[in-house]
Fold this sequence. Notes:
Layout: E1 4-13, E2 17-22, E3 35-38, E4 43-54, E5 64-72, E6 83-85, E7 92-98, E8 101-105, H1 110-116, E9 122-125, H2 127-131, E10 137-139, E11 144-149, H3 155-166, E12 170-172, H4 176-183, H5 185-188, E13 199-201, H6 207-214, E14 221-224, H7 234-237, E15 239-240, H8 246-260, E16 269-272, E17 278-281, E18 288-290, E19 292-298, E20 301-307, E21 311-312, H9 319-329, E22 336-343, E23 349-356, H10 367-372, H11 375-378
Parallel strand pairs: 7-9, 7-11, 11-12
Antiparallel strand pairs: 1-2, 1-6, 2-5, 3-4, 3-6, 4-5, 7-8, 9-10, 13-16, 14-15, 14-16, 17-18, 19-20, 19-22, 20-21, 22-23
Amino acid sequence: MIEVYRIIDRFTITDKGFVYSFETKAVQSLKLNDIVYDLQGNEFQVSGVEMIRRAPNQADNGSVNQQGFFIQSKSGKQAMGSILLKKKPTIHFLFSSDPLNFRKVDSDYLEEYTYASKNYDCALFSLERFEEGKSFIFGDSIQGITIYRGWMLSVDEYRRLYVELLSKGIYLINTPEEYERYHHLPNWYQSFEGETFESFWSTSDKLEDIEKKVGDKQGAFIVKDYVKSRKHEWYDACYIDNIANQVNFREIVTNFVKRQGSQFVGGIVLRKYEKLNYIGFHDKSGMPIAEEYRIFVYAGEILIIGDYWNGNTDGYLSSSETAWIRSIVQKVNSNFVTIDVARKEDGSLILMEFGDGQVSGLQELGEKEFYAAFAPLLSI
């Protein structure tokens, strides 16, 4: 069984170094002088133990003592990401299977699977068989750190899959908490409020609940739920020309909720519309298309950046803009996410959205380039 240590907290003690605490079950096998590795293959040594007093939760009586470990590297760096391993990291991939043939990869992921399988063990996941309680993993035999690449899962589906895979020695790279943190807008918004569009939301799909929060606001807004908009139905179920126009507001929001149907997640979200640097219009929906970038972040660092609509992006972003993106990355608390940024009309960048990296599309990024980007981190 692969030994995986998920970091739940870290801090610095002056003149001593970095202290890490881990999930309780994991620390039983961690010993003084053990060598461990982070997700980027950096080497660390367990150099000491520290008792940590933390605030109790509802199930505790009084304060709680928790074991922390001094983890040191020769370079003095912190561990990248929230996972440490007893062996240098290897990554496996788990792809959605074809709903009609669970031993074949879903056709929408065929190109990804083709490139990934050249250097990584790749298994297939059948959501349909998982829901039916049947065997649901096929293809290569995998254990250890695994990145899911497939169709979007609800938080509940992801949590159940995560637990079931753990029993098989398969560790999805993001915990259910990390998945939900960047899958649902209200969970990440406060941490990045000054770098993204003004947003507010309700906790239901009822029109009257979001109406109460509008107040005297005016101007254009975009409507979505906690996860998705209907941007390809821009004028019917996404863009509200003036939120103060109650007729238009109610029509667009009602259309959105109705068309989302069973796919509606969480509550109604309204995001202030700001003019972007538009490069054209979608040929089918008429939706305005802006200069936009998708950034994949792996273990606390930028993995790859791609132009959302036009492919790879050499030279499109200045060094100062890349530094701004890195400042956002430094605040991310997950091992694998996507960040979407766009250029505003005034030339500056703005944070559009986060997503869990496992269920985020490559957009116009090439499959070959995407999977090749992991190689330098994993000594492939």
